[in-house]
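User: Can you help me understand a structure? I only have the sequence.
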Amino acid sequence: MKLVTQLLGTLATVAALGLATAASAQTTLRVSNWLPPSHPIVKDILVPWGEQVAEATEGRVTVEIMAAPIGKPPAQFDLIRSGAADVGFSVHGYTPGRFKLTPIVEGPFLSDSAEALSVAYWRVHEAMLAEADEHNGVKLLTVFTHGPGMIYTTSKPVNGVADLEGLKMRIGGGIVSQIADRLGMVGVQAPSPQVYEILANGVADGILFPAESVPFFRIDEVVRHGVSVPGGLYNTSFFVVMNRRSWDRLSDADKAAIDAVSGEAMARMAGQAWDAADAAGLKIMEEKGVALSSADAAMTEAVRAELAGVEQGFLDAAAAAGIDGAAALDMLKAEIAKEQ
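Assistant: Let's start by predicting it. Here is the structure, written out as tokens:
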């Protein structure tokens, strides 16, 4: 009997040691990255978030940003869902028609602050949009937007809507293509790293971009004019997601810790990073001699008139998903107002 008791005690000790080892074991989350390390999304969002994850989990979970891309930007969502990496990010609009509710933040006149818009976006997503389950198969860590989109041209200044007619403009994904079309522009599709070449060679007359991206992609060397409209001409919606199996393997404590530094906290950090990068971009452009201006009242009202109803696509998609789209837009604007 004594021998049995000793054996049971030994087994209990081994089991306890095993549990302690498992609890202290480190998990490394690999982040799929398709941008240069110096891009604000990497150095000012993902890297600080990784540091916050490590601190919040007391070192049990660390984040490693991969040095080489595992696929093109439009493929990131599916790559993360399949487990090719643990965490990834991309632009919702890179896969047209897939994320039907994200245009809620892509329209004009919403906010001059990426922070205010990103925080409001997360709140509306959690309160109303999440039930549509558009990010099914992954753990959604956050959503955010870049700063207000502006109009940049290589030679022709834009002082009114009439000046946009027929201009060949590089555009990204999402609702911005509808905005360009309504304003008379001819859309030119090209990845961001190729924009300098198409502008320098005259393939396009200009670009719709946030201020940050102009010097980052050396476009300040070829564009000569930039004009903004109050609240931005457009915005771009981003996601950060995690593989569901990678998430499920974490302890409840580590899940809670990561949630605490993701969601609204990460959206705020992303917005703040983009606002700072936009401010720096505008300063660089001024130093490079790019003529920057704001749309006057006449141009602003003309843009507003041409873009009236551009949110209808979102409203239709929301209705199809059983969501009150008008109420979601109202909530978005109210939350933006709280943050500005």
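Now, to help you interpret it: Confidence is low (pLDDT under 50) at residues 1-24. The two ends are 73 Å apart (CA to CA). Let me know which part you'd like to focus on.
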